[in-house]
Amino acid sequence: MPVLLYVYRLRYRGERQDRAAMGREGIPGDLRLEAFEAGWRGRRQSMAYLFKPGTRDELLPRLEGARIVRVREALLIAGTEQIPRGRKSVERYRQAWVCAVQEIALHRWPELRMRESPQPATGFDPADDDCAL
């Protein structure tokens, strides 16, 4: 028996969405994780789908290599989003889904903190220089 879950995508084209965008994202649907054999070696992988309830109509692009990362108040699933482009082309992006039984209020989403860009590593630290100028 399928369970209706609200799915929130944390990324758009591989870039992390802000809190307001994630709060508007909740899409109710039937979440399914299905195993399949990938490649010529037949390695087992999981694919995550979000279907319109009672159908096989996909509501979101599927996640290849899907894995359950965390189970707390909601389920966190990470993988690679596949977006078809034309007949033979597919774009792939990192993606994570937050799946909850109830909608998640906007104020419960964490603020997006921008990471400081690290200084390029040169292998030289001026503090280690033994020559005084």
Describe this protein with a few key phrases.
5% helix, single chain, 133 residues, 1 helix, 47% strand, two-stranded antiparallel ribbon, 6-stranded antiparallel β-barrel, mainly beta
Report on the architecture of this protein:
The protein is mainly β and 133 residues long. The protein has one domain (4-109): PH-domain like (Roll), CATH 2.30.29. The protein is built from one helix and eight strands. The protein has one helix spanning 19-24; strands spanning 4-9, 11-12, 15-16, 27-38, 43-51, 63-71, 75-85, 89-100. The strands form two sheets. Strands 1-4-5-6-7-8 form a six-stranded antiparallel beta barrel. A two-stranded antiparallel sheet has the order 2-3. The model has no long low-confidence stretch (mean pLDDT 79).
Give the gist of this structure.
The chain has a single domain (4-109), classed as PH-domain like.
